[in-house]
Structure formats: structure tokens, C-alpha cells
């Protein structure tokens, strides 16, 4: 029996936003091989990615150093085996990969196969299992159902108190916890707010619901009350923006806000039942923004006019003398669903429209490589923005 | 903002690592020039608490990087990336003679690492840290499978690496304390070796019959491993520590059944009655128990039991007949076995026989007997009970913590390279560079 090549993934257990190194050794020199990743989702769909490589004179392939010559990604892509994942041939259409249970890791099997064409027909030469975690050790997960507000709170390990975040997603998913879990793993108390259930959607409750949520965070014994920010994506970013703009009225005063793929026009197809009374009075809003704001959007966003929105916001802030509060990250080739890095890109997926319960395929936009680059770059910059405004001392607010 | 530091950030990368992987401990956002203490706390399976700490000064950016900055004092000093683990010691007030060994290797060792204001040396339980994180240290990589083995009357556990295989195999033996000790085999499987930890002194057979196992027990273990569909039967090695070395050499040289590709012998000796069964070899040591010495702390020194190294060939495993590469690991301050003297004699015997090209000796000044995988605490002495002696004794193992910890780190890396080269036949192993 011949002794096989050796495949190692380091670290074998990591947070989802951490890089890993995939190394194959003990191959024959100059040997064509395919590196493949395989993941079975919670919905029992199989996702895979692969790259074609050639070993060097020592019989080594290093995914971090070598170039892929074909497959789902090409070139030097240390994390290509994750971000270029797609459902395996024969899968259902319109799938999206999102982890619901954040207390367990995402398991990815990395394997090496001989040759390039037809590699799937051959059993792997070696394989290794990698764990990708949303929760760092010691992070606590707490279900919140308090004063009518529902959601999930994540608290970092340690004595605290910590800066905190109100984290809001958009429509169509139910409550997603993974971003908050990851933010807690990066040192923030993070509250993923559940606000899209039908019982919440009456006009009177609107702002009050979010105000209560914000205050629950602010008053939490492990939160530093004047270091609470808001992070929202898609519909959630619209909420974030409006909460901040109306902050003097509803007494929600975030230290900073991050809006990902935001839209300030009434989005068709995802209307809140009795919507916010919004959106035609931009000048008023802009005058009320008093905290640093980071706007992130993909230039190929096919779902919402986020590019136009971002430009309009920038213009209005400039006119109001508040340009110094705004940072913008706009990514060419990226779509609507800008998420934590190394997760697969979805150009279009199945979606259930909130009101009508209609099932559609929604085009989000973006092309895989630039979208994945955008996810990696924006996450690092979002964390850096949050670190500056929520961890470091000086407050911009104090100067206004 | 008051003078108590706000929002000091502590991170450990990776937060989940293997036991032999290095980590980077980083403090950020501290006041520049502030004095801080970084402390590790671990509660072991027996319920005892262990701690380690270092005193640091934040630089002009308010940062401390434990891999680059020196600890001024503490349980370790200087630039010591892994000092927070290897210098762990029982907290003040603990009972003496403790040794940290993990029994359940399917769960991680959890260590809480915290940063405190000022240079603290005691009373940590009453202080509130500025920040704290939890770090997991694992003996088993994801995908490694743990399989209890009872075939052929064995008391053993097989650890298979993840993947299709086939994998080279390894028989893993510990010493005179007996029990089924799994952690090293689990870690070796995490590095690609199908490793079988064997209990050969307190096996089910021995506990039920009162009799010690014979040579066939080891041969059965070898056969079970060799015949496993995911094991490469022609690439099997053996690793033994202390009394496990005696067994390893015996099997490597004299067994008709066991054909090893390599052998690793840690803190042991070749001195043994050549024709002896396991029981007889144990008895041989017992016979010399009168040579036990005690130091000023009343700790037992057993290294003299096998000294002087005999000249009678019937009392030494004939290493001149070895046909596979042998790696000897020796602590020069070993107070339990005369590993250094034995290594010298082995070297001479092999030079005379003409097979010394097979021998590599790693000899470490100020290292003691218990040379184990790295980054676990050093026990210079601990309470110990061999299968022969029914009462617990305070046994002196030897070694000075800093040098012993360096020896563990260096030896482990070299053991992995040795096994890789002899079992996988690789030319330039690169993947241990992160260890």
C-alpha cells in the first residue's frame, strides 16, 4: 500500500472571518491535483468549490502561495475554497447559505484529488476537516424577550463592560444571529433584533419598538451606555438611518452607525405593513445626523438602488456641512448581500416576499470574485470603524 | 474618563488551537506605558486551579504582543510566546505533588487569559480584570476518530486521522504508572498517524486475572493495527516513554512478529533482562529498589536502580541488532531513570555493531524525566504510584521549568519530523513550521 500525500488545514478550528492555510505535501513533484472543499448545509444541501493546482519540485501545493489554474477560482486565492463555493451540480435552484445555529461550527471537508479533469470520479488522496465558527469560546448567547422586544443577545467573554451594537438584517430570512455572534467574538455586545414579525408592523409601535430595543442594550449591565452603535443591512440599514435621523425625538443616540446596502426610497416588494413615515424629507434627516456613519454598498446591487442612495446621502451631508461624519465604501462588481467574509456569493436566490408570501427568485447582483473581495475588505473596514468609534476614547458628538 | 482603563482589548489567536500549536496574545488600546499583568487560569479535570502570569509595559501605541515583548517578571520572564501555558502552576494553597494530565481528550483544555491593571502577583481572584478571553486547546483535530479497541484482549484506543487513508501506524506506550493514557496518541493522529495508545500494565486482563500481559499482547496490538483497512501495514512505528521505552526496544529488537519502521524512546533505558517477560523486567527493577535515594524534600530518586549500566549482555537489550531508525530523547536532569547514561551506552553498543547510522540522540540539559508534548506545565516532582508499589510516593522527575519546557517544544517538533520522514518518506516537511 502506498503512503498517501498529507493534507493539512491550519488553523483547523477558526472563526469564519479568519484565514486558513491549506497545504498538501508528499505528492510526486510536478503533479496535477485538484483541491476541493465540501460542505453540507443545515438544509442538507451540498456546497463545493475547487481549484486546479500543480505541485512543486518538493511535491508541495500551498493554496496560500500557489496559483489555481482553473475550477471555481483562479490565481492566488488563499480563501478561494470557501468564498467560491456553489451548490453541487444537481442541487435545487436559488439556494443561499446561511448558518442558523451559531453554537456549532460550519464543517468544511477539504480534500485533494489527483488530476484536473474528472477529479470527482476519483476518491480523494487525502482530506482534512476544518471547523469555521461564528462564536469564539466564552461568548454567551441569550434569548431576549423583554418589554415586547425580541431578539438574541451575544456577550463577549470577560468582565466588561463592553461597547455594543444593535444589529438589524433585512427582509426574508427570519432572525439571523451569525453576524451578532461574530461581532461579540470581536468584542462587542451585539443584539440581533427580530423586528419583521407581523405583530410588530403597526405604525404606532414602529419607533417605540426600536427605541426600547436600543435602551435595553444601553441599560444592560455589561454595556457601556454611551458606546452603543447601530449596524444594519438592507432594510435594517434603512431602519438604522431613520432611527439616527430621528434620534432627538425618540432619544436613540448611537455613537456611530454602519449601513450596508441601504436604500432611502420606499423599496418595492418589501414594504412594511404600515411603513415608516419617511423618506421625502431628506434635508430634515441630514440635519439630525450627529454621529459618524459608514455607508457600504455594492455598485452592482440589483436589488435596491444603494448606489444612488449613498450618493444622495453624501451630497446632502456635504451641503449640510456634515461631510466629515460620513465614510463611504462602494465596491464595483459587488451585489446587495454584503456579508462577513469568505462566505459564498449569491447573485440570485429564492425569496419570500413579506406581505404576499409570494415565492420569487430575487436578483441580488454582484459577480463572485469582486463581491468576495468586497466582503473581505468591507468587514475589515467595518471592524476598524467600530473599533475607532466604540473602543477608542474621543467622541465626535461632543464637538457638535 | 477616569484613570481605570476603558476598553482594553485582549485577543488570542487562534482562540481554538491544538495543544502543540503556538498562539499570539495581543493587548491593544491600553494607555501607552501602562503597567499590565497578563494572566492565564485553568481549572483541570481534578478541580485544581492552575495559573501563570507575566508583567508587561504597554508600548507607545498602547499595545502588548506577548510573542514580541518581554515579561519583566512573573511565572516566566523574557519574550516567551507560550509562557502563559508552560509556566502554569497550581495556585497558592494547592496540595503538593500535582501533575496536569488530561483524561478526556474529546473536550478541549479551557484556559481563561485576562489582563489586569498594574503588576499583580497574587490575589487575582479578588481583582476585576480589564479584559478576558477564553482559549480552547485541543488534543484532537476536527475529524480525528477515537476508536476503543478490545480485540484480542487488548485495552487500547485507536485514533485515526481524518481522511481516507491509508495512514502509517504508531503504537504508543507510557510508563510504570499504567492506565490508558490517550492524549499523545490523539495528538499524533491529529498529525496524520493512526495511533494506538495501549494499556499494558493495568489492562482489563491484568485487573481481572492479577497476571501481567506477555509479549504476545504487544504483538496482538501490532497485528490489529497492521490489519486495519485504513492503516499502511508496512509503515508502523512505536513510541515509548519511561518503562514504555523498555517495551519498545524489546519489541523492536526481539519480536518475530513486530517489524517497525522507526522507534522513539523517551526518558528510558535498554537495561533489562533480555529473555524476560514484562513481569520479569518489572521484577528486575523492583529487586534494586534498595538503591532508592531521597532528597532533602523527601522526594524519591529512582535513577540509581539501573546503575551502573551492566556489562553483562544478558541484561541489556541488544541494540546492535536494531534494524530500524531509533530516536532517543534524553533529559540530562532525569532523576527517575538513568536515560543519559543509557543513551551513551546504547551509542557505544551500536557503534561497535556498525548500526549507529540508525541512531539519533536528542539530549537536553536541565530537562527532567517527563518529556511530553509541549506547552503543558512542567512537574519537577509529583505524587506517583507504580503498579508494583501500592502506595503513593513523591517522585522526583527532575528538570528546571524553562529548560524543560524548551526541551519539550524542541523534542516534539523533532519527533514529528522523524516520524514523518520514516513513515511518510517525505523529503522536506514544511507543515510543522507553525508549531
TrEMBL record, chain A:
Alphabetized InterPro entries for the sequence: AB_hydrolase_fold, Acyl-CoA_thioEstase_long-chain, BAAT_C, Thio_Ohase/aa_AcTrfase, Thio_Ohase/BAAT_N
Any coiled-coil regions, as ranges: none
Domain of life (superkingdom): Eukaryota
GO biological process: acyl-CoA metabolic process; fatty acid metabolic process
Domain Acyl-CoA thioester hydrolase/bile acid-CoA amino acid N-acetyltransferase: 17-145
Active-site residue list: 234, 301, 336
Molecular function via GO: fatty acyl-CoA hydrolase activity
BAAT/Acyl-CoA thioester hydrolase C-terminal domain ranges (all copies): 205-264, 280-391
The family this protein is said to belong to: Belongs to the C/M/P thioester hydrolase family.
Protein known as: Acyl-CoA thioesterase 15
The species this protein was found in: Oreochromis niloticus
Gene that this polypeptide is encoded by: LOC100693577
Automatic annotation (TrEMBL), chain B:
Active-site residues annotated for this sequence: 242 (charge relay system), 334 (charge relay system), 369 (charge relay system)
Highest taxon listed in the record's lineage: Eukaryota
Molecular functions (GO terms): fatty acyl-CoA hydrolase activity
Domain Acyl-CoA thioester hydrolase/bile acid-CoA amino acid N-acetyltransferase residue range list: 20-151
Record-annotated BAAT/Acyl-CoA thioester hydrolase C-terminal domain positions: 214-424
Alphabetical GO biological process terms: acyl-CoA metabolic process; fatty acid metabolic process
Family to which this protein belongs: Belongs to the C/M/P thioester hydrolase family.
Name this polypeptide is given: Acyl-coenzyme A thioesterase 4
Provenance organism: Oreochromis niloticus
Gene name, Swiss-Prot/TrEMBL: LOC109202818
